[in-house]
Amino acid sequence: MSTTPSYKPASYNSVSPYLVVTNAAATIQFLKDVFGGEELRRMPDPKRENRLMHAEVRLDDTVIMLGDCIEGGWPAVEAHVHVYVPDVDATYAKALACGATGVQEPVQKDDEDKRGGFKDAGGTTWWVGTKVD
User: Fold this and answer.
1) Which helix (H) or strand (E) holds 25?
2) Which CATH superfamily is domain 18-131 in?
3) What ranges do the domains of the chain cover?
4) How far apart are CA 82 and CA 125, in angstroms?
5) Helix (H) or strand (E) holding 93
6) Which residues on neighbouring strands pair with residue 116, listed in sequence order?
7) Which distant-in-sequence residues (6+ apart) come within 8 Å of 19 by Cβ?
8) What are phi and psi of 29, to 5 degrees?
9) pLDDT 10s per residue in the chain (133 long)?
10) Dihedrals φ, ψ of 48, to 5°?
11) H or E stretch at 107
12) What pTM does this model have?
């Protein structure tokens, strides 16, 4: 019988990417639209209107944490995140339809993954891959 350690929330993984972006609310919506993400938490910044101090979105078995950048404190940082998806071509097309910019069309190279990449409006480059047999 497996139990969750007391030092972390149930169903959370031990390592989570933390993104500091230019529009956390838009990034959350992008994650929902493109990856079917489930929003877990959203904490508004009481000092800054229309800003999020912290938010969490679950993609499959992973929780992604994110927040809005703050001038003079927490600048937006461009990041790269890899996500395995059931259909890399469909996910890539959906991302472009949701406003992402293509970085690399999905292609299979020298390994068993077909992968491609796109950049969202918040500055994160998402690399998506599907294992092909």
Assistant:
1) helix 24-35
2) 2,3-Dihydroxybiphenyl 1,2-Dioxygenase, domain 1 (3.10.180.10)
3) 18-131
4) 9
5) helix 88-97
6) 128
7) 27, 64, 65, 66, 67, 77, 79, 81, 122, 124
8) -65, -40
9) 556 677 888 888 889 999 999 999 999 999 999 999 999 999 998 888 889 999 999 999 999 999 999 888 889 999 999 999 999 999 999 999 999 999 999 999 889 999 999 999 989 999 999 999 7
10) -135, 115
11) strand 101-108
12) 0.90
Please, what is the angle between helix 24-35 and helix 88-97, to 10°? 140
Query: What is the spatial distance between Cα 86 and Cα 15, in angstroms, rounded to a whole number?
Result: 22
Residue in the structure block whose two tokens are 């959203």: 42
DSSP string of 65-80, one letter each residue = EEEE-BTTTB----EE
